[in-house]
Amino acid sequence: MGMLEVSRNPLRTKEDLRRLTEEMASCVTKQLSPGKAWLNAGETAAKYPHKTAWMEGFLRPLFGLVPFLAGGGQTPLWDTYLEGIKNGTNPESEEYWGHLQGKEQRVVEMTTLGLALAMIPEYVWEPLTEQERENAVKWLSEINHVPLATNNWLFFPVIVNLGLKKVGEPYDRKLMEEALEKIEACYISDGWYSDGSSLQRDYYIAFAMHFYSLIYAKLMEKEDPERSVRLKERGRIFARSFIYWFSSQGDALPFGRSLTYRFAMSAFWSALAFADVEAYPWGVVKGIILRNIRWWMKQPIFDERGLLTIGYRYPNLKMAEFYNAPGSPGWAMKTFLILALPDDHPFWMAEEEALPELKEVSVQKHPFMILGRREEGKHIQALTSGQYARFEPSFMAAKYEKFAYSNVFGFSVPGGEFGLEQGAYDSMLALCEENDELYRVRRTCETVQVEERGIYSVWKPWSNVSIQTWLIPCGSWHVRVHKIQSGRRLTAAEGGYAVSCDTYESNENQEILLDDGTLIGASFPWGTSAIADLEGNRKKTLVKAHPNSNILYARTEIPTLEGAVRAGETWLACAVLGTKSRQEAAACRENPPRYERKGNQFQIIWNGTTNIYEME
Prior knowledge:
Helix content is 30%, strand content 22%. By secondary structure, it is α+β, with helices and mostly antiparallel strands. An 8-stranded antiparallel beta sheet has the order 8-9-10-11-19-16-15-14, covered by helices on one side. Strands 7, 12, 13, 17 and 18 form a 5-stranded antiparallel beta sheet that branches. Helix 10 runs parallel beside helix 12. It is elongated, with a radius of gyration of 25 Å. The protein starts with 13 loop residues before the first helix and ends with a strand.
């Protein structure tokens, strides 16, 4: 862990989290520029200029330091940060953060200073001279004169103006109200927001829409009581769905964009506690947060300087977004918001508890998902169809439109554009022209229906190719059925979960190849992945995916079925198995789902239940 000593930190108390926050911030301050206003964390780039990235690297750790100080912590690091804030907002300084140029990244990073003004004015405002205050206000107020994206970005002027209001400076109340009304228009129901007009329902709903909502609700509960009550209640309701995204071991479902923010996944729960919303007993909420942070601290996510790297479970630029600069992962520190709670808050007084008893299957229509929990809640499997991020983040189809996502197996992004090894098509149906190896996958759906018994979708990889797909949960199995109407001859490859195939010299015989007629797969002590052909006679193979394509494991293989799709009508069906333990895998293979079809109607028989489905 480089300069961090997390291996010696049990991460169970407020003092433990304070120590982690201070250690992470200390690693940052050791790398700051002479004027302390920039962090050049690396030489890779994002879509915005390097100096903006350096500002981002400096400001994001404030998500940890601000609540650290608000909750009674003391650190000599603050003197360094205050110097950086003074220089960054001073137009005469060589390290001035610069004027806003419209809809750009500096708007995002202003939020941390707004939060600091609102929560710790005695540390960030009162020590400033009159000129330094004028500089800070002038720089922050620029946010009121630039266009904003109509999504989670609407919260940035709200938080900045809230900070200005709290220190008695002029603020744009009208703009705040307009932004809050636009945010209101993003609310769907059942605690779920959309992130603007896009169809993605990912972690931004938790660590942006709800996170900032709950901060506003707490800080404005007296001045804006009606809205604050409404925002808190939405957080309480959302928690009932979101809890299913977390495993009993602490990790969470990897899905969607911006996964390099890592333990920001649990920031929603910190915001609930900050806003005094007891959606579950405090010990349960405490357990979710602390188990998640502990899980992440066991992963190789820091470099030798103690700085967070770009990647997910390991450093990996391949899966990064175009807006991920070297300092971007600092958003993970949002989860440290709980440090603002006083020592005697019931959150800190409660004993950490396990997750409550949860249903084995959770149907969540707003994110278009059916989430299954297996193996005592250690394995989360999400079947999904229909999400689409219309601004097309990197590898959008891989991050949103696979058939299944798993906390045990992760998901893969393409390592190249040619062939199955480069494409790494886990949990996808990939199609190419006959005698070609340039594949297309599902990117968006024309129709989606989410029901208790499965998810139905219609999608078109080409204008003259229409595919109807059913995804049906069957415990650790799930069944996929596709009816393809094609105006061209194609080759189809369908992948199961990608499983880590990393073995070491002393354990070279850990892999067990599964190949018995219709089924192909691989079993390791840490996981079993297999796929069985239920209709037709598809070729079975284990695809060795390009290294670093999977977000959890650097080397993986993908059980895959390959077959022809003729012009006209073709049916494909398979059962996919993914388990964490070999014992569960053996039990599942003794009880596979059965598939029978007659015409456009088919039935799935599993665990003594028969469900009948129909394609158009």
